[in-house]
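Usage

Read records sequentially. Each one opens with the input sequence:
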Amino acid sequence: MYLRRHAGALAPSVQRTTEPAQARTGECVLVVEDDAEVRSYVVDALGALDYDVLQAAGADDALQLLQSHQTVSLLLTDVIMPGKNGRKLAEEARALNPSLKVLYMTGYSRNAIVHQGRLDPDVELIQKPLTSDQLAAAVRKVLDGL
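and closes with the structure output:
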């Protein structure tokens, strides 16, 4: 196999032009993810943005945390989990706190949230795998109600 040699200059590397949006005082995110590695990544990324972060491996643990922590601003939950799915968790969580904002994550299927090619009303979704910048932007968008 012969490859042609490139004699020109290297393309400039892509650099971030803006910093990801930081948390505002008192913003707390509850991360619910059954995959420990994904959960750890998301928790670390949000912590680096100065969010107060709680975490749970499943819906039942998340509901207990919501009952004992009234300051949760955002529920960030996986859609597909063993036991209760993210959709059912969000319904029960909003029964405890009607003003709770919800952001769904999925790496498998959008079918639980998407119907006829459109998201259900008031549903925000981020696809896995995700970068810390994508996560920061999605969380900020939901918290700001944009």
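Summary fields computed downstream for this record:
- The radius of gyration is 18 Å.
- Residues 36-48 form the longest helix (13 residues).
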